[in-house]
User: What shape does this take?
Amino acid sequence: MRVLFDSSIRVDPLPPLRQDLACDVAIVGAGISGLSLAYELASRGRKVTVLEAEHAGFGASGRNGGILFPAPGLVWRIRGALGHSDATWAFEALRSRCGELVHDLGALEGGPTQASMYLAAPGRVAERALPWVARSLSDARRCSSEELAAHTGQKARGGIVFSAHVVDPKRLTRSLLARAQAAGATVHENTPVVDVSESSSGALVTALGHRVRARDVVVASGAWASRRSFQTWMLSSPTLPESTLAMLGPSIVATAERSFTYRRVYDGRLLFGAFDDPVTVPLNHVPADVGARLTRLLHRSIPDLPTFEPECVWGGAIHSQGHEFPSVRRESPHVVRLGAIAGIYWALMGARFAHGLLEPSDETPEDARLRQCVAATRVPVFGALTLVLRLMLGPWGGDLT
Ligand SMILES: Cc1cc2nc3c(=O)[nH]c(=O)nc-3n(C[C@H](O)[C@H](O)[C@H](O)COP(=O)(O)OP(=O)(O)OC[C@H]3O[C@@H](n4cnc5c(N)ncnc54)[C@H](O)[C@@H]3O)c2cc1C
Assistant: This one.
C-alpha cells in the first residue's frame, strides 16, 4: 500500500529480536502509543523493550491524516457519569494537557503546525448543537454559511471554526522513535509478538522463538489486534495550484449519520479521508472501489473542485471491538492494554495514562484524577465521537458505505 507520507522517508530497519531478554517493561507495537510510552518510561530510568511486527509507524500512526482533534464528546460523557463539576474540571484538564502535548510535540520533526479547522452544520439539528460544541473547544467561534462556503467549498447552514493543529504523521512517528531510543529504549522491528502470558514474577512475551521477560507488558498493537474495526480511507490528489489549495484548509465536515470526512493540504496536495463501516479487510489491503467512492464523496462535498485521478489511496483500521474506557486498562496483574481508538491525541494521552498505571508514584494527583474521570465514562471513545458528530450533524450527503 503506497502512503503519501512515506515518500520522503527512508530508514534502515532496526534489528529484530535475536535472543532472550529481560527488562522492566516490554511494549508490543511501535505506533504513537507504544513509542510515547517507551519514551516516558525510559526517560525515568526504566529498562524498556519495544517489539514491533513490521516497522515503527507501520500502523495507523504512520498513515493517518495528522489532524489533532480532542473528541469533545468525551466530556459530555464524563458529565453524564460523574456530574457537572467533575466534567468541567476534566474538560479544562484535558484542554491543558492537549496544549502541553502540542507544545511538547513542537520539539519534534513533524511537530504540529497551526491550522483553522472548520466544522459544518448541514442541518437544523447540527446548527442547534454547534453552540455547545463551540463552548467545548478552545478558540471556537461560529461562522456564517458564506464564510464556510468560502473556506471549505461546503454548502451548510453555518458552522464553527476553531484553532487546531496538523502534523506529518510519518515524521512524527519517526521522531518519537528517535526520542524513545535516545532515552534508552530498545526497539526491535520485524518482530511479531505471538504470545503474551503471565509468570509468577511478571510477564513473558514470545516473538521469533525468543522470550522477553518483563515486570509488565503493555500491548499497544493498535487496530491490528482487532477483529472488528472501523476503517478509514484517504486519498491524495495530484499537486494542485496554489489558488485551489488556498481555499482547502483542514476541515472536518459532516457526511452522514455514521460518518464524517476530513481533509487537509499536504505537500501541495489535497488529502481527503472518510470513515467506512466496521468491515474487516486484510491488513495492508485497499478495496478496489475505495478510490472511486472517495472521489465521488470529495466532489460532492466540494463541487467546484477540478476533477482529478487520485495520486494514491490508502487507509486502515481504527480500533473498535467494543473496547470500553478505560482505553488504558490492566487486563491482568502484569498486562496493560493501551488502545488508542480515537486518534493521535488519545494515543498520546493514553501513553500518559498507561505510565500512571504502571508507575503510580510518578503520576501527579491531577493526572490520576483525570485518568479516573476518563475511565468512569466507560464508553468507547470512538462511539462517543461519532455520537456527538451524529447529533451535531444529522444525516446529510452520503458516506462511503
Ligand atoms: C487512514 C487513517 C487516517 C487517520 N486520521 C487521523 C487524523 O487525522 N487524526 C487523528 O487524530 N487520528 C487519525 N487516525 C487514527 C490514528 O492514526 C490512530 O488512532 C493512532 O495512530 C493509533 O496509534 P497506536 O500507536 O495506538 O496504533 P498503531 O499506529 O496502529 O500502532 C500499532 C503497532 O503495533 C504493531 N503490531 C500489531 N500487532 C503486533 C504484534 N503482534 N507484534 C508486534 N507488533 C504488532 C503494528 O505493526 C503497529 O505498528 C487515522 C487512522 C487512519 C488509519
In short: The domain at 95-168+227-321 is CATH 3.30.9.10 (D-Amino Acid Oxidase; Chain A, domain 2). The mean pLDDT is 80.
